[in-house]
Amino acid sequence: MTQQSKFTPGPWRLCYDGQIDGADGNFVCSFRWSSYKDFNDPENKATARLIAAAPELLEALRAIIHPDNERHIEFDSRREYYVAQIEGGEYHMAMQAIAKAEPV
Questions:
Q1: Given Cys at both, which of 22, 41, 57, 101 links 50, Cβ 3.0 to 4.6 Å?
Q2: What's the mean pLDDT when you consider all of the chain?
Q3: Residue 42: HSE in the Cβ half-sphere, 13 Å Cα cutoff
Q4: How many helices, marked H, and strands, marked E, lie in the chain?
Q5: How far apart are CA 12 and CA 37, in angstroms?
Q6: Around Cβ 37, how many Cβ atoms within 10 Å?
Q7: Which residues on adjacent β-strands are paired with residue 56?
């Protein structure tokens, strides 16, 4: 982590039973699913993956917005959106964290 955080350090891992463990293997949280069907529900699994990815998502966002990062911003021809090219490994960090949160 780039800053001292008050939460359990990541990365967190989603276990097969719905429990989320910290990097040290200790318990972070768990989900109370009433049945095996609930455990396999796509929305429930997506929520669990997102929670497990939280520390890495936060770290990636902190890296992206860090004032020392150089950014080159370009607008499209209609100036409706822009593309920011981020120098360094921050883009890769963000993509890894997003991939952890989203289903495979």
A1: 101
A2: 76
A3: 3
A4: 3, 5
A5: 24
A6: 9
A7: none
